[in-house]
Amino acid sequence: MDKNRKIQKRRLRRRNHVRNKLRGSADQPRLCIHRSLKHFGAQLIDDLSGTTLASASSRDSGVSVKSGGNCDGAAAVGKLIAEKASAAGITSVKMDRGHNKYHGRVKAFAEAARESGLKF
Predict the structure, then answer these.
(1) pTM above 0.90, yes or no
(2) Among 2-6, 14-18, 20-24, whose mean pLDDT is lowest?
(3) Domain 3-115 belongs to what architecture?
(4) TM segments (predicted)?
């Protein structure tokens, strides 16, 4: 089997394992993250109605960090999504890390969001 196909299958398995336990609602939406080599993004998703309640990315103009692909950029996105969530009246979320390990940028994002008032 091709090495890249094997990696993709493992990532898909991990993502499904994490997401099968999480379902977001209007009271406690799912905080879904997306991590690429250059950027970091997050969305608050209500799975019952299928809508995105708020989103933030390192590409947004509100993020002051020059590079979004590092821990500082992820922390800035965490603060921004927490501010948007509090403006929408959301205090508690379920974090969906996808296939990413809780390490590095994902951990920096989560800690910044917690410091800004979100509860996981």
Answers:
(1) no
(2) 20-24
(3) 2-Layer Sandwich (3.30)
(4) none
